[in-house]
């Protein structure tokens, strides 16, 4: 399968969640916003990259045999179709249903007198003082506009000057003409305030007599402006409010048309590290280049006239493929704000509160808890707090000597970063690999890196030519029996905010061999040296590809020898052709291969003579499936792994990743149960067909046979926590007197 078309199939599955009538209304709005946000990134990165490839060599073919030109054409056709479906859903279904639920998008012209007074006050006090129009003339070129921001393009014409009155008859004629002009002007203003006016004026005019202006709306003024209402929640979009009052920006000019538009710039801009003397400076140049990069998409109101469309497409040098007329509000991300409105809980999913892990006692230090045995956490069903708490305890523990950690993405106010800085300020040896090349998080990571350096943290900016994507933290502690290394391995980022939304796995352990491997791995990265042989871990780009291929081939050999053989993997993406070919060979040998691939899957299952024994599913539900879990039957001696890496060339060849075995028997049993649970889903599961399309099961979502894997995993976490609390209540624990020195 072509990678880009496979990704679009994934986004289609997200969009169909928004179309699903069994999903609560505001959750449907959220899924529509997610599909729009996903598409924005796809256009920036993947389509932007395709256009760069086209400029270099348009005839290069991908693994599916498509040239770059064919890919661009196929993607453009599919995206236009998807956008039309998004806005059909918004306009014809969601907005009417939201209005019925008393969440209404309104326009100033339709408001009550009181609401119009509020709109007038907010525009003149909050909006007009902030926004500034930018006139386009021969000496004032088109402004540099922010990608993905909503802007207004205004078509103007100078009002005709009044002629002097010669006599009474002429005065009468002039009065009549003036009355007509006044009436026409009033009509024009009224039309401009209500919507964009695209009809030609009655008198002949030349294009050269028009002038264009742009009003960037920016992000300092909220997009949703709340309006007074007797019931529910009324709001007006900022672009509609400004359009209503747009004439106030242009006294002495006639507003012919005011149209909202939005541009998407190419974000596939990578650092040329060989020419970068300083990585931070180089990344700041990348951010600047992204701000100045070519436009790859223009979205605009479908009411726009040909005059404005021609003007915008010409100034940005766009083709018809790049143009997206939108019959509705641009930028669906405003629906995220609606999802967060207070007072509409019945329109949202019931809250699933993350549970405490039964082995973790808040009254006991985490070092003591981990020393008793490995702990496997399945997020977000179980809290991410223990990972934050572990690093915070390490920061103040006098026996902790060092903390070593990889940070790929973090939150805006990261408690983990704060704890690392506290540890350094207390004299502990703190080394942090901060990946400055984490796309769209570069600026935040640069800021964190500088703050940590000022606090005394040793900050390393990864490896030249590679992205450091591994999720690992090593805490070195002095104990009576000697040095002990406490470890956290994860499939997700050190971001406590997204940990409540993403399905991931964490492993807490103090296993000696894993500790030695992790230290060897970390020192190889920070020391930019050749990694030594690892005993249990596999690391990309050195050994991970070979380890995965060897495990698949070993399963294939066992099957050919008559043994039972099985491979089960849960990943975000499967793209790598070597891995796909190995899985095809395993299927041909009779190995049962079950794949849970959330997003891009370039393997085709169920093809006769090739992949008959391969099953591919995709789960799209309330949590983003992000964990990478891999299982091999291994002759009955099950092997289970968690990983930071998907099976893509970028992960296996161009990133620093980790592949971590789960050794503890209880942790292995829990992890395998989680992995197999997804394949029982009957409510939010999509099955991939040999064509590359997906089919969704139509099971009764509330019937006896309904099985929602995410709900089952959450209910299991709740039940385990309940039993643990009940067990603690049944056990008498005495308070021991504190021993004096």
Automatic annotation (TrEMBL):
It holds the Pfam family PP_kinase_C_1. Residues 171-198 have a biased composition (Low complexity). One of its GO terms (molecular function) is kinase activity. Residues 366-530, 537-704 form the Polyphosphate kinase C-terminal domain. Residues 1-104 form the Polyphosphate kinase N-terminal domain. The active site is at residue 469. Its EC number is 2.7.4.1. Transmembrane segments: none annotated. SUPFAM superfamilies: Phospholipase D/nuclease, PHP14-like, PPK N-terminal domain-like. An intermediate of this reaction is the autophosphorylated ppk in which a phosphate is covalently linked to a histidine residue through a N-P bond. Residues 164-200 are annotated as: Disordered. It is an enzyme of class 2 (transferase). It comes from the Bacteria. Mg(2+) binds at residues 409, 439. Residues 210-338 form the Polyphosphate kinase middle domain. Keywords: ATP-binding, Kinase, Magnesium, Metal-binding, Nucleotide-binding, Phosphoprotein, Transferase. Its cofactor is Mg(2+). Belongs to the polyphosphate kinase 1 (PPK1) family. Catalyzes the reversible transfer of the terminal phosphate of ATP to form a long-chain polyphosphate (polyP). This is Polyphosphate kinase. It comes from Novipirellula caenicola.
């Amino acid at each position: 399968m072509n990678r880009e078309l496979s990704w679009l199939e994934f986004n289609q599955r997200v969009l169909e969640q928004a179309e699903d009538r069994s999903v609560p209304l505001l959750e449907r709005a959220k899924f529509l916003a997610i599909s729009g946000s996903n598409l924005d990134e796809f256009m920036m990165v993947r389509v932007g990259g395709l256009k760069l490839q086209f400029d270099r060599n348009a005839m290069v073919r991908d693994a599916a045999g498509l040239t770059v030109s064919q890919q661009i054409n196929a993607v453009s056709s599919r995206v236009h179709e998807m956008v039309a479906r998004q806005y059909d859903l918004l306009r014809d279904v969601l907005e009417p249903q939201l209005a019925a639920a008393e969440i209404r998008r309104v326009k100033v012209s339709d408001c009550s007198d009181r609401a119009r007074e509020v709109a007038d006050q907010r525009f003149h006090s909050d909006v007009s003082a902030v926004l500034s129009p930018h006139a386009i003339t021969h000496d004032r070129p088109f402004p540099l506009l922010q990608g993905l921001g909503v802007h207004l393009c205004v078509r103007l014409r100078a009002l005709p000057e009044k002629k002097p009155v010669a006599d009474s008859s002429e005065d009468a004629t002039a009065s009549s003409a003036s009355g007509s002009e006044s009436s026409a002007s009033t009509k024009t203003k009224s039309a401009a305030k209500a919507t964009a006016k695209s009809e030609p004026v009655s008198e002949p005019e030349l294009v050269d007599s028009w002038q264009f202006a742009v009003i960037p709306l920016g992000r300092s003024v909220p997009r949703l402006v709340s309006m007074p209402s007797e019931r529910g929640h009324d709001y007006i979009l900022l672009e509609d409010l400004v359009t209503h009052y747009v004439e106030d920006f242009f006294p002495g000019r006639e507003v012919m048309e005011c149209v909202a538009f939005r541009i998407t710039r190419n974000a596939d801009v990578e650092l040329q590290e060989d020419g970068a003397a300083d990585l931070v400076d180089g990344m700041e140049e990348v951010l600047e280049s992204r701000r100045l990069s070519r436009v790859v998409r223009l979205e605009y109101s479908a009411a726009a006239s040909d005059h404005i469309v021609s003007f915008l497409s010409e100034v940005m040098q766009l083709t018809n493929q790049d143009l997206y007329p939108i019959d509705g509000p641009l930028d669906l991300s405003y629906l995220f704000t609606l999802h967060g409105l207070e007072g509409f809980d019945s329109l949202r999913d019931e809250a699933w509160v993350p549970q405490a892990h039964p082995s973790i006692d808040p009254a006991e230090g985490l070092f003591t808890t981990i020393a008793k045995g490995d702990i496997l956490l399945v997020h977000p069903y179980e809290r991410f707090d223990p990972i934050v708490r572990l690093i915070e305890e390490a920061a103040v523990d006098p026996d902790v000597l060092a903390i070593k950690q990889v940070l790929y993405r973090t939150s805006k106010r990261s408690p983990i970063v704060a704890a690392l800085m506290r540890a350094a300020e207390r004299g502990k040896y703190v080394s942090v690999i901060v990946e400055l090349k984490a796309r769209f998080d570069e600026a935040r990571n640069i800021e964190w890196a500088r703050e940590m350096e000022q606090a005394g943290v040793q900050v390393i900016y990864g490896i030249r030519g590679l992205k450091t994507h591994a999720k690992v933290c090593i805490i070195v502690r002095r104990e009576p029996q000697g040095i002990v290394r406490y470890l956290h391995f994860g499939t997700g980022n050190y971001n406590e905010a997204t940990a409540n939304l993403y399905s991931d796995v964490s492993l807490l352990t103090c296993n000696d061999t894993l500790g030695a491997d992790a230290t060897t791995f970390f020192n190889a990265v920070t020391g930019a040296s050749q990694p030594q042989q690892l005993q249990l871990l596999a690391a990309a780009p050195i050994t991970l590809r070979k380890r995965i291929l060897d495990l698949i081939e070993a399963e294939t050999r066992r099957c050919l020898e008559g043994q039972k053989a099985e491979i089960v993997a849960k990943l975000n993406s499967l793209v790598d052709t070597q891995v796909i070919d190995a899985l095809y060979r395993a299927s041909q040998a009779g190995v049962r291969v079950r794949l849970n691939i959330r997003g891009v899957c370039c393997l085709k299952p169920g093809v006769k003579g090739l992949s008959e024994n391969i099953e591919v599913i995709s789960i799209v539900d309330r949590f983003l499936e992000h964990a990478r879990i891999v299982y091999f039957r291994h002759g009955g001696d099950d092997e289970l792994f968690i990983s930071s890496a998907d099976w893509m060339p970028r992960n296996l060849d161009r990133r620093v990743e980790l592949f971590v075995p789960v050794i503890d028997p209880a942790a292995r049993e829990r992890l395998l149960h989680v992995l197999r649970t997804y394949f029982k889903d009957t409510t939010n599961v999509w099955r991939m067909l040999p064509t590359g399309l997906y089919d969704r099961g139509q099971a009764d979502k509330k019937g006896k046979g309904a099985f929602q894997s995410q709900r089952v995993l959450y209910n299991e976490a709740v039940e385990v926590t309940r039993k643990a609390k009940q067990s603690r209540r049944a056990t008498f624990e005495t308070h021991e007197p504190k021993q004096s020195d």
